[in-house]
Amino acid sequence: MNGAESLLRSLIASGVDVCFGNPGTSEMHFVAALDSVEGMRPILCLFEGVVTGAADGYGRMAGKPACTLLHLGPGLANGLANLHNARRASSPVVNIVGDHASSHARYEAPLTSDIKGFARPVSDWIHSSGSALTVGADAARAVQASREGAGQIATLILPADTAWSQADGVASPLPVPRPALVGADTIERVAALAQSGVRTAFLLRGKALQGRGLAAAGKIAAKTGARLLSDTFAPRIERGAGRVTIERLPYFAEQAADFLAGIELLVLVGAQAPVSFFAYPDKPSWLTPEGCRIAILSHPHEDGTAALEALVDMLGAQRAVARTNALTAADFSPGSTLDAASIMRTVAKHLPEGAIITEEASMAMAYSGLTETAAPHDLLALTGGAIGCMMPVSIGAGIACPDRKIVNLQGDGSAMYTLQSLWTQARENIDVVTVIYANRGYRILANELARVGARTDGAQAASMFDLDNPSLDWVALAKGMGVEAVRAESAPDFDAAFAHAMKRRGPMLIEAVI
Amino acid sequence: MNGAESLLRSLIASGVDVCFGNPGTSEMHFVAALDSVEGMRPILCLFEGVVTGAADGYGRMAGKPACTLLHLGPGLANGLANLHNARRASSPVVNIVGDHASSHARYEAPLTSDIKGFARPVSDWIHSSGSALTVGADAARAVQASREGAGQIATLILPADTAWSQADGVASPLPVPRPALVGADTIERVAALAQSGVRTAFLLRGKALQGRGLAAAGKIAAKTGARLLSDTFAPRIERGAGRVTIERLPYFAEQAADFLAGIELLVLVGAQAPVSFFAYPDKPSWLTPEGCRIAILSHPHEDGTAALEALVDMLGAQRAVARTNALTAADFSPGSTLDAASIMRTVAKHLPEGAIITEEASMAMAYSGLTETAAPHDLLALTGGAIGCMMPVSIGAGIACPDRKIVNLQGDGSAMYTLQSLWTQARENIDVVTVIYANRGYRILANELARVGARTDGAQAASMFDLDNPSLDWVALAKGMGVEAVRAESAPDFDAAFAHAMKRRGPMLIEAVI
Q: Which top-rank group of organisms is this from (chains A, B) (predicted)?
């Protein structure tokens, strides 16, 4: 058994059985091992930003890591932006980064670079294997590291000689770290505050926005009258008809401030206190109302679900009936105009139960409230603000949940960052429908230009926001990568295309011209 | 005048008048300043890998830096791989990276990241501006830093408040650093060695492969009988008919070793001693023959051209007649089979004088000797091995040299990395013809798999090299971004398409199916 086989078998033994990759020469032994070792599904992506975004999506939906396979420093570098997003999503990811053989490092060959330097800003754990004899144990440790806290980025660097040299076995899996429990005193303190009669909101993030956590939060809200909030960019939230109603924090700072106005106690459950996404001249970044008390029920690395359930018990809220969303979204007949609102009403109308919405369009975010009354689904948002995330996240979500429909609501500007995703969607027959909000521009920036006080109506600035010279033809781009595509220019056209897309299986793209 | 205007005016005063960018909210004041300040040409790219690759191409051809405009850490991260290549090309590049306002940094907003950490592995100079009052001087210093040595990567981080706050003027340009002169003793020593009767080769890189440097090297070779060599991946070389003949080091280590066999003295002119690109089990990385003496005429930061001219004088070679290439490539009638050889013969036949070949396909590299006898041209190669480089480099070369035809010889796998380049090529009407070597796979890797001793004929490994399920349709992809495209499946078809492309102006893509 060589080091590559030892690594691969150890990953599989630790429960990692999906590998998103774009290998190069230094990873060839790992690639060869894919044939001699059973149990790892390799998925080729044609750019590393797709690799790491897919691993993020997989981690969010599978609740365990996939591994990536990346070629040296530049291969890792191409994946950094989506690792930044994955880290902000607390997604577990294990990066396997090939390196030059240790004997070759001193020669400063063209691809030599500081791989640890590239990895550091996005990794919670980094290790470079020193020998084929340790790569198995290193892999087991990387998997464990990726599952610490709420989920982490673990980067294991594998010099080529550690892959091709003789190894001596498969490492046993290490225990999956369990989240820390919140102390009873904390729960007592929050219970007392929540019953003190002040206007209270719970801001939830992480597992607290799923299943048992949501159910407990719903009972607490019913018992105490507290509001239930989520971040604008929660990694994953279970929502839709029958699910506990959660208010989503608006994106723009002044709207967020209005939304939070009047709250006297903000209880954080795996979340940070809200701050504006960007700074604006003479506007505060800190959004919690002045004088509002902040209480932390659970930190991100702690078990927020258990804390919420303990709080239910302490409040005697076991029988409280949570407020849930009704199923009303199906009642929509499109008029003629195709716009962000009519797109979302159509999405909500046809969304199948169990769908996964991946959202990366400011125009989708603005109307996301319309899907709260659609069939129950998951919503995955752009956690780190690095665009080019959700097309690959859709791949990973589809691999993790092959029986669920993925609906990717995607801006055209951000879609261009990782459009190579379409090819992998076609190859792996991912059941994803990509809706491109084709407004032919970085509209969010035209808006932000004025908001930061940088007013200009000049042509040079405008040319930096407009994508209409030439116009992108998304039907042609999708076809070029083997994905069926249609263009919709009216609301009824979009309704028909989206309804059709929900009934078929496999990747499809709808260019919604708005 | 705000900081953004001060920055922009100072860049322009220092001779930087082209900006490749993909801005975000934190760069909006810089964008607005593009309208209030005359003299900067902004060029929008739809992905940051295109931005930095274009800056590399511009730097190689203009001999001075363009600036980039990048959005926070993730925007820089997306551009790192091509900055790695640019650094290996010694291209001068000034990165302007927006950052959160200094007051906002503490809040750990979603896009907060360690920008200096991202920049460090690829930057020779990094600075984060502390005040709007210093950004002008910081910009002048960044430009100067980019021009030190043979050319460097300078990264200037610009917190949003330094852009929007009041500034107080425009910084004067700093002196352009001149390369260090090689001492007379070094030249005397090399002259003595070169006349000692041993088999000698000069390995040239940088400016020594252009104009006066080449002319001097040609005289030295004629006088002494030395061979003239270039690296496999020289950033830029002037070659073709009438130019001094330079032998290119082969890519594969065993071929390179054969190529260098028998050399007893290797003189380095701005080059490093040759090493293999990758390490292979039980094969040496160091390629200089055992017992061969290495002499350094000039280091990369020194003036190799002046050193070669001084050596000409010392050798009394002023009247020696250099060996130059004949113009014979036009004599080619294609047979029926389209392959890497017939593609290159067609390229050589029709290549117009003054063309710039940008090369990123192993099948193009293997036949690059066929263009030595084409019309005089420049050849730009993939210096750092990070694929996805030459489509954007073609943009930058086209901006720097609008009157020269760009011929981009591009593998399909590497083209997918930065295919967004086509859109900017269309928007800016770059006079570039992209020839896609559509072999539907990472063929170099299928080859390397066996070379590293990782033999397998299994399906999983093969699936990591093949791009044929589904096949990429490059005509559709180009059309989707506004670039005219045709597919050629036979040698006569390719000959006709390429001949047509040489006669028209503006971007075009030819998918050569091989």
A: Bacteria
User: Would you say residue B328 lies in a domain?
Assistant: no
Same domain, B371 and B507: yes
What's the distance, CA A144 to chain centroid? 20
Q: Do B46 and A467 touch (CB under 8 A)?
A: yes
Contact A480 B463 (CB under 8 A): no
Q: Which residues of A touch B35 (CB under 8 A)?
A: 456-461
Q: Are A283 and A196 members of one domain?
A: yes
Q: What is the DSSP string of B444-476?
A: HHHHHHHHTT-----HHHHHTTB--TTPP-HHH
Q: pTM for this one?
A: 0.98
If one counts every other C-beta atom within 10 angstroms of the C-beta of residue A36, the result is: 16
Which of A23, A26, A463 lies at the smallest CB-CB distance from B44?
A463
Does A228 lie in the same domain as A117?
no
Q: Is B458 on the interface with A (CB under 8 A)?
A: yes
Contact assessment for residue B39 and residue B409, using Cβ atoms and an 8 Å cutoff: no
Q: Where does a domain end: A104, A129, A164?
A: A164
The distance of B215 to chain A (nearest Cα, Å) reads 27
Residue with tokens 């690959």: A392
* Among candidate residues A315, A332, A360, the one where a domain is terminated: A315
The CATH number of whichever domain residue A395 belongs to comes to: 3.40.50.970
What's phi and psi for A11, nearest 5 deg?
-60, -45
A202 phi, psi to nearest 5 deg: -100, 125
Residues of B in contact with A32 (CB under 8 A): 449, 454-456, 458, 461
Clarify whether residues B146 and B190 are in a common domain.
no
Burial pattern A433-442, b for ≥16 Cβ within 10 A else e, equals bbbbbbbbbb
| CA neighbor of A244 nearest in space, from A317, A299, A301, A143 | A317
In a mutational test of the B interface, the residue from A35, A87, A460, A484 whose CB has the highest number of chain B CBs within 10 Å is A460
Tens place of pLDDT per residue across chain A (514 aa): 999 999 999 999 999 999 999 999 989 999 999 999 999 999 999 999 999 999 999 999 999 999 999 999 999 999 999 999 999 999 999 999 999 999 998 999 999 999 999 999 999 999 999 999 999 999 999 999 999 999 999 999 999 999 999 998 999 999 999 999 999 999 999 999 999 999 999 999 999 999 999 999 999 999 999 999 999 999 999 999 999 999 999 999 999 999 999 999 999 999 999 999 999 888 889 999 999 999 999 999 999 999 999 999 999 999 999 999 999 988 889 899 999 999 999 999 999 999 999 999 999 999 999 999 999 999 999 999 999 999 999 999 999 999 999 999 999 999 999 999 999 999 999 999 999 999 988 888 888 888 888 867 788 888 888 888 999 999 999 999 999 999 999 999 999 999 999 999 999 999 999 9
Do A126 and A203 share a domain, yes or no?
no
**What is the predicted ipTM?**
0.97
Nearest to A358 by CA among A398, A328, A301, A403: A398
- CB distance B80–A78 less than 8 Å? yes
